[in-house]
Each structure stands twice: as structure tokens, then as C-alpha cells.
Amino acid sequence: MASIAFLFLGYGFVTFVTGFALQDVQAVNKPLRMKDLGGFLSERSTLVFLALVLLMAIPHRTNDTYIGLYIAELGGGMKLVGYAWFIMTISEVVCFAFVHRLLKPGRELGIIAVAGIIYAIRFGLTAIAGYPVVAVLLQALQGVTFVLFYTASVQYLYTIIPEQFKATGQTVLAVVFFGISGIFSSFAGGYLLETLGGANLYGIMACLSLIGAVVCLFIRREARQAGETSFK
User: Fold this and answer.
1) Most CB contacts within 10 A, which of 3, 100, 139, 194?
2) Enclosing H/E stretch for 209
3) Pairwise CA distance, residues 145 & 27, whole Å
């Protein structure tokens, strides 16, 4: 474990040096007004969308936090936990390379719903895995679920947010996805893992993901029926 510090130090140094090769891009010339941002964040479509992101992000972040403990509960060791994260990372890299072929304008909510269904299948199978190796192999679905969900969420956000607030809107999305959901998942996930066990925790995560997918489909249908331009 002591050697990990050198790994992070070396990686951080390479990242720091690489940053000098980047160039600034032209910023949007439109002035930023907090009044406009407050109006956007108070819109029903925005609040519903962020609530949907939070609902589907909680199971994702719970898996990030407790997959290692669940593998240990199933009898796996530290090596399998490392393999699980390796598989998750590699699958994300591969899916990020090809997601642009699926992510077409106007299909964002449908893709988010598909990601929610795959999340539910992934967590449901993890709940009944029984063997640590099976739980590790199921992490290969991380790329499909996370990449589809997050990239579609970012693209959809860009369709409903004013041009000058795109960077701020993406920050808000990241706060909801990684921050607020992380707080809920860490607290509730730890309690459920200790009281109900890993299998039941992952069963609840599967249910939450499925609920998120259904809610997303309802939002999509409601938007089409109402003809709201802010939903697609």
C-alpha cells in the first residue's frame, strides 16, 4: 500500500506537465447574469431533469463506493477488487471512443432510459452473483451504463441551458452526479450494506435504476404530448 503514493505522485506530475501543452479556447462573449442562471435553475424542466439525474446517479455512486466491500463479502480478495476497477475503467475508455455514433441530437432522454434499464440488469445480476468473480466480470457493463447516461445527460443539458451558462450548467450536473448523489449513496449505502447485506443492497440499487428508467420514459412521453421545446 505504501507504494501507491509514488504511483499517484508520478501520475500527477505527468498530468501537470501535459497541462502546459493545452491552449485556451475562445470564451463566450455573452455576459453572465446570476438572474438568468437562477431563472434557468428554477424552471420545471431543469428541476425534473436534475432530480432524474440524482435518482439514477445514487445507485451508480453506491456501486463505486461499495463494490470492493461486496466483493470481499462474497469471499474475494484485494486483487479481485483491483481487477474490478481495471475492468470498469477499460470499459469506459472503449465506450467513450464509440458513444458519438449512438448519441444523436433529440435522442438523449431515450438513451438515458436505456442506460437505466442496463443499470438495473447489471445491479440485479450483481445481487444474485454469488461468486466474487461474477461480480467482477459484471463491472464490464460500467462503460455502457455510465458513458451512455453521463454523455446523454451532458448533451441534453446543452439543449436546455443558455449558451453562456453551458460551463456552469455542466458544473451543476457534476455536483449532482458526483457530489450530492455521493453523499446519499455513502450514508444510505453503508447503512443498508451493514443491516441488509450486499445482495439486498444491490437489489435495491437495481430497483432504483429501473424506476429512473421508467420516470425518464414518462418525462419523454409527457414532453412529446405537450410539445414542449425544452424536452426532447
Assistant:
1) 139
2) helix 198-226
3) 32
